[in-house]
Amino acid sequence: MSSLERKREKHSPFTLNPDPRRKTSAEIVTEARHSLRTLRTQRPFTPRDNHRQLFGETSRTQDSRPPSTFSLYARNFEAPDSRPGSGTRLSPLEHKPRLPVAQDEDPDPVSPMALPKPPSDPLELKRGAVGARARLFRAGSLTALPPVARPTEVRESVNSVSSPEQRELSAKGRGRRALYVEPTDRERRDKDSGGPSKPAPPRTNSVSGLRFHGGVDSSIRPGKGTGAGAGAGTELGTELGNGDRPASQEAEDESVVWNVKIFPLLQELESIVAGGSEDAVERLCDACDCLHGALAEQGMLGRRCRKRAWLLRALFCLIDLNSAQLNLQLAKLTLELNVSGKNLLNICKLIFKISRSESNDILFQNNSIIDSLLCVLRCEDVCVSGEAVLYCVGTLKFLSGNSALLRLLLAKDCVGVATLLIQKLHPLSQPDHTQFTIGGHIHVQLTATLRNLADLPESRPLFVSHGTLAELCLVLRHHHGDQDICTNIARVFSKLSSYSECCLVLAQTPGCYTLFIELLSKHQWKQDLVVRLLFTLGNLTSRSSEARKHLFTAEGCMSVLLGLYHTYHGRDTCNPCTPFLGWWENKDVLVKLVRVLANMSIHPAVGPTLAANTDLIHYLLNTLELRSMQESEELLVNVAATINNLSFYQEDSSVVRDRGLTVAKLLLKLLLSSSIDGMLEATRVFGNLTQSREVCDFIIQNNVHQFMVTLLDSKSPEVCFSACGVLTNLALNPPSRTTLTQEGAHTK
Questions:
Q1: DSSP state for residue 261 in the 8-state scheme
Q2: For the whole model, what pTM was predicted?
Q3: What count of Cα atoms within 13 Å lies in the side-chain half-sphere of residue 388?
Q4: What phi, psi does 205 have (nearest 5°)?
Q5: 664-693, pLDDT tens digit by residue?
Q6: Is 628 helix (H, G, I), strand (E, B) or coil?
Q7: Domain assignments of the chain as residue spans, ordered by start
Q8: Polar residues compositional bias: what residue ranges (predicted)?
């Protein structure tokens, strides 16, 4: 090294680059492009819904939505079938017998014989009887529970071993005719010998308050039955048969199990109700647990138990005790017995009613009822049991508001079950489908549950692995007009898109960008939906260059985004009386919107087009002019960052380049503010604008260069780096060089 070079190195304020190779133009451009930055912002706040209702203040009318409050009693439940369903449709009998008319008084001998009217529906008789008793029943009383009545047909079957005289008296006592039954051989012999057996009272096991008419099972006698009774027993035995075991043996085994294990537990329930002790509810719950265990151990859950109907009636009557703890036990056992139709609906409504009170959340933690609810969602046909599914999902929505139960739901794969249910609901999503409305109601509850589950970090892999995000996009497309569904899904996306794995999956979902733009256009006045969709788009465009291009090329993208800018920028700036909450929400929408524009402008094919958009630059400069740093710091910082990205592109068509002096004047208030972020963004913009001689002269004339020299004392490398960029551009002009030397810039 020559002495002259050593002298220059000694007095030079800069350290020479040890690499003698000069940077290429591509490297210089790449280094400059690093100044283009994506923007971060806070996720929109999601308020907690403290009112546990199916629907809050929504767009749904009161007439079209199911109620959130109702009363349920034992009389609301239907009497189930007394025999298991075989799944086989029987053909009608061709022979229609003519039966004699039964009357309370002697029939008229002159009147001709006529076909009898069908007997009264035993279910209707049951409803009427229970309704009359319910008026005398005090809710919560353990000693006044109405008796459990069995269907007339079953009573006749059980009493078929009695004499014809007994059957006649019993039928007249009930106010209906007695069906003629062929007497047995023993009855004929007794009658011929003149010694008929004495009438015996029906076998009835009862305790004061609760009466169970099932009794010890003596009606099934393998090998002894005759006629229709034997045929029915054989049919049921075959249905419940196991391999090569005779059906009669199966029936006999179940009869033994019933008498030895099940019926004593029902008697225990009766005695507890009759006793009326203070710990009756706890004892009833324990007895129900034992009953559930015994039925499960013997394989008698579902529809396999022959006395299932009597068992369900006994359980339904206990509902009137009005105990949340007991009712959850009863609901769990009832669902295990595979109820359907109205009974399934009422059980789901009963569980829903219990879950409406936060004080009952602890009961769901100590009960496996959640497993039963998830099983209902997996197995039930939404076209048949849509309303029951609705209340079932509504219960899960309420429970997901509890942090402990939320984690329990996640552990039981509620995300996977919800995704499966969404797939089952897709066929109902056609507007002309008869179940479209109930499908929409279910989606409201389901998406609200997923919204709560998305709060847990452990849920993110499940949303990805189950393909839930793509399914939710399909729901948005089917229900794009439903603001409740759209808002719930937007909340899910705004939460999950903040994390890279979920953001990548959503960014790769076909058609999601066009879908989001359509929703923004359709619901532009619904602020809570708009702000979350914009936040999601900002997350997608901050992580993926392809997302920036896909969003920009989506049909109507720029017209919709600029339309939103015009709407929300003018709503509060033109009206000084705008309430604070509305003003804050408008500002939050603009913050998220400007962030999307800034992120999109990084793409080399998108940035020049945005820089040449006159309307966009007009809105950005108008925001700088009308807003103050005290009220809108985040918004102004985002606007300055967007202008910085756009000012990178120095094409002749750039509006930022043409209006550089105007931009420089408006940025002075950010530069001189107390906001470090605002000062830094303004300095970065000046680094691009000082390529213009006009802007350089403005900076020298307004002593901005002095501020830049002062920034060299900053401890922030970013601030020093940006200030050096501005001073370097100013030093290209010989007159400015003298001014900078006088300020001591070279020394610093």
A1: I
A2: 0.74
A3: 25
A4: -105, 115
A5: 999 999 999 999 999 999 999 999 999 999
A6: coil
A7: 255-338, 359-482
A8: 56-71
